[in-house]
Amino acid sequence: MTPLPDSLVQTEAPAGWLPYRWWQSHVVGSVDQEQVVVRIFEESGWSPRYAFMTMMSAGIAILGLLLSSPAVVIGAMLISPLMNPILGLGFSLALFDFTEMRRALAALLVGAAAALLFTALIVLLSPLKAATPEILSRTRPNLFDLLVALFAALAGTFAIIRGRGETIVGVAIATALMPPIAVVGYGLATWNVPVLEGALALFVTNFVTIALSATIMARYYGFGHSLSSHQSWAQTIMLVIVFVVMAIPLAISLRRIAGEALTVAEVRSFLSGRFGDQSRLTQLDVDFERKPMVVRAVVIAPRDRAIAKTILAAELAKELGRPATLRIDEVLLNPGAESIDRQRVELKLAESAQAAVAEDNTTAKLVALAAGVAPDAVTIDQDRHRAIVQAAVLPGASLATYFALEHRVASATAGWDITIVPPVMPLPTIAFPDGVDALDDVGRQAVHLSAWAAKRWNAPGLSVPGLPPTTPVKPRLDERRALAIGAILKQEGIATRSAPAEGQKVILSTSPNP
Prior knowledge:
Largest sheet: 3 strands, mixed
Shape: globular
Strand content: 5-15%
Helix content: 55-70%
Strand order of the largest sheet: 1-2-3
Number of strands: 11
Distance between the termini: 48 Å
């Protein structure tokens, strides 16, 4: 059994200060701190059972996410053991017990790694790899997610301290942790970087919030009350700084999401008002990631309320005060022919649904054909009209070949964001004429092609031969050439790093530490 920290030793209350004495007798005095700490620290460490239950919970969670089944995801939370080590971390922070802190952190790292690898393995073996709404909903953390984790942690810590209903509130804590880990595993398996980054940000946010909230609740109940004033102030400042640092970007994200919701409401109101009270807006989707944003809608309206799409698009852009592309299907009805029109409406809606599925299949086939893989190897994000694939090694193909294939497919699939990841291969040679430090058209194309490949490989940067660490007053010829290449890479958003000069011809290379 872990010995109790010295910080559990109670001190005398200041005489005459009634609020303090009331807090000591009615709050601190109502809790058996020794029993609570022993129970939390005994269950916060790593064990084979903990690792096994974490993996099983993660496996159920990722299957529920792939099936877009909230009930299955909730079921995974019932067996998740993540609450114990994260509360152990929170209490160790309150008690300044660094031994238990390391023990709880080790358990959390083992559990998170086991869950991540297990979910990634399931996704790799699964025939279902499409990003479902349940997955996408966990890729955009905002301030509400922080509040969910905060309330779950406060409730969980209270239940642990008071010894009431800790199993049920443990589900709430697991809900804030296990699905994000599973989505990180999905993003890793499909190499969907936006999904991976968003889910990882959500997991880190929830993890830190729960641990620090447990610290706050533990201090409220007197755990660590005998810490020095310096330690108490250090805790307080740390908590405030961490919560502010997390809250600011999450509040910005929430504001963006709220703005998108307001725009969707404005679009809905505009279309409903423009077609009249007898019309019905049956489908509406707004893609904010496209520039300009794309609005897709299906409207059922009387035939006499038909509006030309070009006029409607211009009016919508004026109403929103921003450019927008409108893709709308108008299902026009004839008065007095309700049964026939009803059948036509149903047929039209069925055709729209079939067209969406057919569009996805067609895009997947085109991308697969260009990449030299099977169609099921293409990851399709229908909501954002994205298609991503890892290309096979094509005989005689260079990076320029894969670049041209990607652009050819993008041209054939209007409205889709196509990403073909080429196999790792040497970057193209960038040649300079004798004594010249300026790039010709061929050289510029080689630099742009290198930047494109670096982005597709998610390389953090490129090493540029001859690039000086700082711009010299009188750069040599090889330095001027390297600076010209670096300027183009900077415009492409690629970080650069210096490498030894190579002479007339320059070959860039991926850099792990730009």
